[in-house]
Amino acid sequence: MPDPQPILAASGIAKSFLSHKVLDDVGIELFPGEVHALLGENGAGKSTLIKILTGAYTHDAGTITLDGQPIHPRDTRHAQEMGIGTVYQEVNLLPNMSVADNLYIGRQPMKWGLVDTRKMQRDARALLARYDLKIDPGAQLDSFSVAVQQIVAIARAVDISGKVLILDEPTASLDQHEVEILFEIVQQLKSQGMAIVFITHFLDQVYEIADRVTVLRNGRRVGSRPIEGLSRMDLVTMMLGEALEHEDAMRIGVTRKPGELYASFKDYSLSGKAAPFDLDLHKGEIVGVAGLLGSGRTEMARLLFGIDRPDTGQLTVAGKPARLNEPRDAIALDFAFAPEDRKLDGIVGDLTVRENIMLALQAHRGWTKPMSRAEQAELADRYIKALDIRCTGPEQPVKFLSGGNQQKVVLARWLATNPKLLILDEPTRGIDVGAHAEIIRMINRLCDDGMSLLVISSELDEITAYSSRVLVLRDRAIAGELTGEAITTSAIMEMIASEPEARPQ
Amino acid sequence: MNPRYWPLIATITIFVLAYALAVMQFPALFSTRVLGNLLTDNAFLGVAAVGMTFVILSGGIDLSVGSVIAFSSVLIAVLVTQLGIHPLPAFAITLLATTLFGASMGAMIHYLEVPPFIVTLAGMFLARGLTFLLTQDSISVSHDFYTWVRGFYYVMPGGGRLTFNGGLMLLVFAIGIVVCHRTRFGAYVYALGGNAQSAALLGVPVARTTIGIYAVSSFLAGLSGVVYSLYTSSGYPLAAVGVELDTIAAVVIGGTLLSGGFGFMLGSLVGVFIQGMIQTYIVFDGTLSSWWTKIVIGGLLFGFIVLQRIIIAASKRDWRKKKVEAVRA
Amino acid sequence: MTRSIFSVVKPQFVALIAILLINWMLFPGFFNLFIRDGRVYGSLIDVLNRGAPVAILAIGMTAVIATRGVDLSVGAVMAIAGAVAATMVQGDGNALIVVLAAALGVGLLCGLWNGMLVATLGLQPIIATLILMVAGRGIAQTITEGFIVTFNDPGLIFLGSGSILGLPTPIIIMLTLALVTTLVMRLTALGLFIESVGINRSASSYAGLRARSLLIGVYAFAGFCAAISGIIAAADIRGADANNVGLWLELDAILAVVIGGTSLMGGRFSIPMSVIGALIIQAMNTGILVSGFPPEFNLLVKAALIIIILVVQSPLAGRIWHFAARPRTKRPEVSPK
Amino acid sequence: QEGLEGMTIGFSQIGSESGWRAAETSVTRQQAEEWGVNLQFSDAQQRQENQIRAIRSFVAQGVDAILLAPVVATGWEEVLSEAKDADIPVVLLDRGIEAPEDLYLTSVASDQVLEGRVAGEWLVETVGDEDCRVVELQGTVGSSPAINRKQGFEEAIADHANIEIVRSQTGDFTRALGKQVMEGFLRAENGGQDICALYAHNDDMAVGAIQAIREAGLNPGEDILVVSIDAVPDISPAIAAGEANATVELTPNMAGPAFEALAAYLNDGVEPEKFIITESRLYTAEDDPEGEAERRRDLGY
Ligand SMILES: Nc1ncnc2c1ncn2[C@@H]1O[C@H](COP(=O)(O)OP(=O)(O)OP(=O)(O)O)[C@@H](O)[C@H]1O
Ligand SMILES: Nc1ncnc2c1ncn2[C@@H]1O[C@H](COP(=O)(O)OP(=O)(O)OP(=O)(O)O)[C@@H](O)[C@H]1O
Ligand SMILES: [Mg+2]
Ligand SMILES: [Mg+2]
């Protein structure tokens, strides 16, 4: 039972950006030794609340107390000093610095007035070992994948937090194994009496770890409940304000009949990144790609879209030979690719939602054939509605959107080009349950219309839900393939796990 | 080999290669005299380059250094000759003034959220304008202290001199390297250059660091003015016009990215040497007309930078294959 | 609405008008215009006329800066274009059109060179263009052999000191170029593409933009603008002064662009505002000329004015203004930090 | 000319900022060829530090003599004593320096203050007792010709209360700024009606200013008197056309006397005079400006 005295509490928090009210009279109480899930749709205001609690934003109204004392965190440094460790939603680390620097910046061990680099690296190694991560702490952070960076961010926050740990969608790009490790550590911290805030869109994880939930909707608190006795259905209803239609077609992929061959990659390879593989993609087929972190799924997608050029390989599209030198060529062949790292490769932050949505289509047409304003507006409105993108309007700069809504904008950009082959790398990362269902429905519909899809996802449930065929990657090579009824979560896991000694060393 | 070191190694390799080639053409270039001159003649540039390295690493730029050098040299001259102050307190006053100048530029950059380019451009006008207010004439400084400093050198075998100024530059670089790579301030500088927003979220004191960076840069520009003053024993209001671009070029040639976050202090020293080498080479050649001088300087600059790119690109390809990987137990 | 007055009235206009008013206070005849021989004269016209070369540079520079680049070579390219025009027109009496085509072509080539270094070799823009900044003036001097090559071709001179519709030709050229460029940028998707590449090059090429060609094109355009500016500068003094033309003008052009509100970090840009920026700078210069301050104060005055403009334009001032304007709102904030 | 064949002489030139400077460089080259001298040329791009570097390199190379056209008067002591220690004679060209006289062999230069004074005296004589409001186009702020030429001119008009400098701005020694600044003067002085004379620190600015005067609808040379300094060929047509009234000669041939002095010193040990002052002659329309321009073409222009 939680202690009656909360460690960190906030009440009456309000926040507006320009005239747009994002939080209105929101409160939250964190008790020692509890894991508190903060839930809500994309754009509900979860990340904003976190940023206010940790001093990254100033709030317009409301009070925050720590151990009963009112506090006014000036900046994040201040919050850190008070024992609040935070992982913000987008990985907010320094890509140009070493892993150790990222873990210890601002609190490096000192010796004779200088930074004790050796000790710092030693500590870093020890710290990361808890997460099963054996990497060189002296290596530059951006030489690692998003997932590894995510773990580094978590390790840093855990290490800093003395009283409160806040995790904003920490598991979005992690696979099962990492999630397990994270949860172990969270349990440990919990038993030490810390309060942990956990934001996620994976309800399974909420039920696995959380003690209580607070749900936000449209910048207001809907309520806080203990998780015990709260049914899944009720929880979703709290979040969405309405019941989610039951997803009846849980295994749609199985029944689908693939159409004719669309694109055929033969003997594709890139040294160090992808072992030679053959891949045939048919119309009306969804190919799921599964694998562990660093198994080379993203690399494969990059090759298929012409971002990296293969060392060997031939491509045939609709019966004709083709070559990919750059993404443009792929787009000319009606390919589309929603990349994994939306901040880096996806959104164009300062452009508006409308411009971001129209960008690929306009590029496809060429700069001399601009879309008319009406056409643009129509396009933007259509996708804002279709994907339920929460924004103040099509003219809002996309960088001000919440993480999940940015992801939807990237999807919209590619759907707008009406592709024949759509490659999605972690398409539902950070997307809420409502939109998640909507996107899966949309993937299905597109497939029914004859589009060919290749979907990379760390969520095996998702892959099994819609794939008509699943490729399993291991160590940058295709380790196996599953079709039809054989596609089950456990079969995929088994395939991933076989021959463990062949994992990247 | 950590791939971050490649630009540095490329720069050093190119410098050594170029020097060897130049010596093959003009054997007289291979003497301690030339090396000593390289240190002495580029001392003020080097000192300013240390400050510029901090600025550029943090993703900023400081266009005011040339003017600040001129301002310092003139202020010292005025203090010493017209007010009769001993050079040492004059240096102290000057360094204090320039440090404050830099700190206020940093404060403007941070609190007014104005791009450094513009703030320091205004700083460039301001410092030069203040110099003209002090004097329009060049002023000779003759003081026993200057004579004493001038007599303070070490003769290397071969007749080359390691002068006070040359030594001071090396010392400033040594301190710069330590501060840049081994202190918290140095880490904050890299952090700001990597991503200012993330840095703020990670708890880097952005305001303090920004102000500190520009204060250090102007302090070192002031120190560079001291070096210039000792070097020429005079104050000249038109001194060091355009030195900011030379400094920036030295830093960038040294492998530091102008967008911030990547680079090494030591690289800037090599960058300064490369620039000095180009000038010395052209003097030794002695046949170029005024305009061909410019074209050849541009050409050599081009050659250096392209070579550097090629070496780095080649190393990257190699590195991609052996990319550091996450390994799970 | 919590939007401050600053987002409605562009601060650049306020700055320009303020400087013009200061000039008027220092020199009461500042707004006087008179017509002689069918041509308008006056200090206001001087501001436009003398501001034209920097404004034209700023038009090209805006596009470059929007892609997160910078072009330091424009001054040197001015010198090259002027030298080419002057030597060709004075030497063999080439037809004016050939001369102009050659000079503009050379500017375009210089820009292409910069663009290749930046886009293809991946050099940092400042250093890539520094090469041409240093070497370019040498090239121009090689063409003129270090002397001012004078000419008397009335057609070429017309570009510098003639008039169209009562206005000096440089003003007309500047306005036309600004208008055409703005229209091309905004009526086609070019402007959007440039902004997109400037904000996020990686995402842009994923979306199928030709980031590389776009970069090359932008630098070529800057070179082209610099050539126009160089021709005007040469035509103005009836000679190509390769040693001095455009010296340090690249800094003025960059300053104009930034005063005009385009960020050096790339992205959103506005050509008309950059032109306003150039006019603000020239208004300062003209003010200094007519005010009668001793020249040693020039730089101080300029520095002080820039600082004032920066303070007034800054988000902080906006917040304070906003705060003063509506003292009853709680903790106002214009943009999050 | 004999006595210097095969010798290597280093020449540290300031830069190539003006036509006059380019002429000085080419005269020096011509002279070197005539004397059979192997000239090591170095262009300092307006930077003193580059000149110091050049002298040091000349010493390292072991040249026989050094010509130095100093960018500024101060700051040469240390490097010149290094040259002296290496027994390399140094000859200063076109302006003097503030340093002990034993550090250089001789200085071949004009008297910049005198140049200004000659121009001023011409104006005093020309306007007589009439009131005259003068506008001045200064050279680069802080450069020694600008300071000295201003000083000389002011000395010459000091005792003549009828002559007054009403406006003075820098035109940076360039034609473009000469024109632009003159435009400003014309606007500020009642469309130029109130200006009696223009004094420009060099001919280039005067040429620019003449265009501005003409474009303002006035007659340069008549409505506004024009006097400047340098006597480069480009001013001659203007003088011939009566648009410019007078200019003070500054010869670009500084190297001739310098080589003579060096030859005498190196071969016969003759110490030359310490200061060889070149003539500062006044040229007006009476001096056959067109012929003068032609003759000047040989001077490397
Ligand atoms: N800097 C900003 N400027 C303007 N609006 C903003 C800004 N940051 C967030 N918003 C708006 O605030 C709302 C809440 O965003 P927030 O990021 O808190 O959502 P979230 O609940 O974290 O959503 P997600 O699940 O997608 O991460 C969104 O509508 C967003 O558009
Ligand atoms: N956009 C990219 N540019 C360069 N290298 C990349 C990029 N994306 C991934 N890599 C590199 O490729 C390697 C493996 O990629 P990654 O771990 O993303 O593979 P994956 O199978 O897609 O796994 P996941 O996407 O789940 O993390 C990593 O070392 C990573 O640094
Ligand atoms: Mg969020
Ligand atoms: Mg991936």
Automatic annotation (TrEMBL), chain A:
Main localization, broad class: membrane
Top-rank lineage group of the source organism: Bacteria
Pfam families: ABC_tran (PF00005)
Residue ranges of domain ABC transporter in the record: 8-243, 244-500
Membrane topology value: Peripheral membrane protein
Keywords: ATP-binding, Cell membrane, Membrane, Nucleotide-binding, Repeat, Sugar transport, Translocase, Transport
Cellular component GO terms, alphabetical: plasma membrane
Protein's name in the database: Putative sugar ABC transport system, ATP-binding protein YtfR
Subcellular locations according to the entry: Cell membrane
A GO term for molecular function: ATP binding
Organism annotation: Pelagibacterium halotolerans (strain DSM 22347 / JCM 15775 / CGMCC 1.7692 / B2)
UniProt family annotation: Belongs to the ABC transporter superfamily.
Gene3D superfamilies: P-loop containing nucleotide triphosphate hydrolases
Keyword Membrane carried by entry: yes
UniProtKB/TrEMBL annotation, chain B:
Annotated GO MF terms: transmembrane transporter activity
Source organism of this protein record: Pelagibacterium halotolerans (strain DSM 22347 / JCM 15775 / CGMCC 1.7692 / B2)
Official protein name in the record: Putative sugar ABC transport system, permease protein YjfF
Gene Ontology cellular-component terms listed: plasma membrane
Main localization of the protein described in the UniProt heading: membrane
Pfam family, one: BPD_transp_2
Transmembrane segments: 6-26, 38-57, 63-81, 88-111, 117-135, 162-179, 211-231, 290-312
Record localization: Cell membrane
Top-level taxon of origin: Bacteria
The entry's keywords: Cell membrane, Membrane, Transmembrane, Transmembrane helix
Membrane topology: Multi-pass membrane protein
InterPro entries: ABC_transp_permease
PANTHER family: ABC TRANSPORTER PERMEASE PROTEIN YPHD-RELATED-RELATED, INNER MEMBRANE ABC TRANSPORTER PERMEASE PROTEIN YJFF
Coiled coil: none
Record's signal peptide: none
From TrEMBL, chain C:
Membrane topology of this protein: Multi-pass membrane protein
CDD domains per the UniProt record, alphabetical: TM_PBP1_transp_AraH_like
An MF annotation (GO) of this entry: transmembrane transporter activity
Keyword Nucleotide-binding: no
Listed GO CC annotations: plasma membrane
Keyword field: Cell membrane, Membrane, Transmembrane, Transmembrane helix
Subcellular compartments: Cell membrane
Source taxon at top rank: Bacteria
Membrane spanning stretches: 12-35, 47-66, 72-89, 96-116, 122-140, 171-194, 214-235, 247-266, 273-293, 299-321
Matching InterPro entries: ABC_transp_permease
UniProt protein name: Putative sugar ABC transport system, permease protein YtfT
Organism of derivation: Pelagibacterium halotolerans (strain DSM 22347 / JCM 15775 / CGMCC 1.7692 / B2)
Lineage: Bacteria, Pseudomonadati, Pseudomonadota, Alphaproteobacteria, Hyphomicrobiales
